[in-house]
Each structure stands twice: as C-alpha cells, then as structure tokens.
Amino acid sequence: MSILLPLLRRLGPPLRLPARHLRRDISYVERVRFLQHLKEQDSLCSSFLPDGHFLLYYRSKPLLRVDKANTEEAIVWLTYPELLKYYPEVLRSSVLLDVSEEGKPRYSVQVGELPSHTKEKLEDDTGGLFTDLRLGLFMVSWQDAHTLSRANCVLMWNKNNAFCGKCVTANNRSASGYSRRCTSCSQTHYPSSAPVGIVLVTDPEHQHIVLVRQPRHPQGMYSCIAGFSDVGENLEETVRREVAEEVGIEVAVVRYIASQHWPFPGSLMTGCFAEVEKQPLDIDTNELQDAKWFTREEVGTALDRINSNPHMRLRGNPSGELFVPPPGAIAFHLISHWFKGTPIQEIYQHIY
Hints:
It is built from 13 helices and 15 strands. It starts with a helix and ends with a helix. α10 crosses α12 (330-340). It is an alpha+beta fold and 352 residues long. The chain has helices at 4-11, 28-40, 42-47, 80-84, 90-93, 116-126, 133-136, 142-160, 235-247, 296-308, 312-315, 330-340, 344-351, and strands at residues 53-58, 61-64, 77-79, 94-99, 105-110, 129-130, 171-173, 180-182, 188-189, 194-202, 208-213, 225-228, 253-262, 267-275, 290-295. Strands 1, 2, 3, 4, 5 and 6 form a six-stranded mixed β-sheet that branches.
C-alpha cells in the first residue's frame, strides 16, 4: 500500500486517494518527497520509526549475512519490534536512510554499546555478522554498497559533530540525523561529501592505460589516479591537476562516466576517462609507490584475478602479480568497461 495513506493520516484529515495508490509501489518522486518530509519534520520522522526497517552498525561494522554475499539478502534488515529486543535505545542513536520502493522508511542505528553476549545473540538469531565495512562494500550489490556507505557516513557525522563548528557549543540533532542546530548561536549544520575526481587515463588508441600504486595498497594492487577537489575547481580541473601532479603528464580530453559515494572518509567519487598520447611518466614519489602504462592483455589478466578472488583487495596477492580493485569500487567499472570497449555513453546504464 502506498505510504501516502499513513503519511496523510499524520499530516491532516483523511482523504480519498486514487485507486492507483492502493495497488502499486510508490514512485521515485513520491519517495523523494516523502523522504524530504521526514528530514524536515522531527515528529513525523519519529512517528514512523515503528513502521521502519533498520540497518545495524556495531562500531562502523554493518550487520551482514556473509553466506548470502552478493544477493539481495546480504544486508540484515530488522523491524522495529525485532530491534527493540536487543537494543531499546533506538530513538537516541538511529538516523534516517531512505524510503524503500515499497514505501517503508529505512533507518540505520549504531549499536556499539551492546554487551558482547547480546551482540553474539543478535548475530546468531539473524544469521548475520558485524563485518568490516571495507569488506562489506564488496559483498553487496552496487546500490546496496551506496546504502552501507550513506548509513555509516551519517552515523559518523553525528558522532563527530556534537559541538558547533562556529561557537563550539553543544548542538542538538534532528530526528532524522541530517542536521544539527546549535543551542547557542542557532547555526544549523548539515552532513556533506568531499568531491573526488577519479580518472582512467588511456592512450587515444585505447590500447594502454595508466594505473598507479599507493603505499597503502595491498601487494599487487594498482588503481586509477584519484584526488580531492581543491576549493574553486571544477571536475575537469581536478582531474587534469591530479594527473599532472601524480604522473607528470597533461591530459586534454576529460569525459564524465559515473559517480559513487565512498565512506572513507565520506567522498563523492566522480569517475572519468581522459586521453593523452602514450609517453614516459614522471612519478611523484611522495604520493605514489609506482605508476605504469599497462597493456590491454595485462589489464585483462588483472581483471580475471580480482573476479576470481575479490578478497584479494584486503589480503593482497602474495605473488605480487597485478590485480585491480573489485566490482564494489568505481575504479573497477572504469577499468573493466574500458577493457570491454563499452561505448562511453552506455557505461552508466551498465553500472546502474
């Protein structure tokens, strides 16, 4: 049933709705507008908690079913009554996530204060496991990875912004967790994402690409060039500057492909392609451990390695042989669609 019915019951006198609202899931526009109401109206957001579904985090580790990895059942969603059995402090530590296609508000809750025996019982009862977020992002679908990322970022933003950044007075959070208002100067603060440009540099013939290795990467992994936008930069300027800084070449053509939210630390990763004639690289060793031009054959082999063993992202490749980030990362999609030769205008629809 459309969420418009319970929403209207809370917002005003009962109205007769068209029959179409009783027979189908609500539309994207209806979901977005309902979500905005929930963000803006504390009493409304709180009143829908008993109708909601909840994604649980324990010290930034989401509750996931490891044996259901890469299926729709990977994320453990609890109803309000189910959650109360383990954690009664829902109102104090939950944040709003989104509205599902069925019209159900979805929330996330941090349960880091659970006693160890309650945590273990919760895991046993649900068949879930509180899983390292870096691993969890590669255990779920592309869309569910965005959900995990958003949930952790909003929870952590509230934890790290208990005091006003303007006058350093304690502030109060909204019921949704999407804003905090200072109790002294009345300044309102909102969570935000840091823009990052991530780019796959290729030669004009599309036979070679530049991949780079940072010191923190696991053994054998190379990825795309990436960096935070400076104040006042547009996306194209960010990409051109990062390529120039890290590998000492100047790219001319920059094309946007797709974006991804990433929770470390809370970034909007904007994926691009860029072209430049194949030439020697001048590596910034303060930023990178290595950077190389790789052939199409080498990239194909690297993709095969990560597809056959996604956990290599966390553990590395003991042999030191090349692999690339797994499917949960936008870098994988840039690299794999370049390798497949997917037309640029079609890549977005293949990712989403």
